[in-house]
Amino acid sequence: MEADFIRRRITELRLKRGISEYKMSRDLGHNGGYIQHIVSGKALPSLTELLYICEYLDVTPRTFFDESTADLTLMEEAESGLHCLSEEDLKILVPLIKHLKDKNK
Predict the structure, then answer these.
(1) Fewest Cβ atoms nearer than 10 Å: which of 18, 33, 71, 76?
(2) pLDDT, tens digit, for every residue of 45-95?
(3) CATH of the domain at 49
C-alpha cells in the first residue's frame, strides 16, 4: 500500500464529513497542523494513530482501505444491520445479495 493512498484517503473521508484539517487535528489531540503534515507528505501516521483516525472518521480500517465503497455511511449502516440479524435471516438474505450482485455486474 502506498503512502499516497493513505494521504488521499484521509482527505477524501475528511471532506465527505465536512471536517477541516485543523479541526480534525485538534480533535485528535494534536497541534492544528497535524493532518496537514500527513496529507502534504511531510509525515505518516503510526498504526495506532491511523486506527484513531479511522475511529474519528467513523469508518472501520477495512472500509478505510476499500476504495470501492461509494457511500461509506450507507455501507457501514448496512453492515451494522447485518450483525444484528439471526443466522436464519442471514440465510434468507444471502441469495438476494447474490442476485443483486450478479444483476449489477
Answers:
(1) 18
(2) 999 999 999 999 988 898 888 877 656 667 777 888 888 999 999 999 999
(3) 1.10.260.40
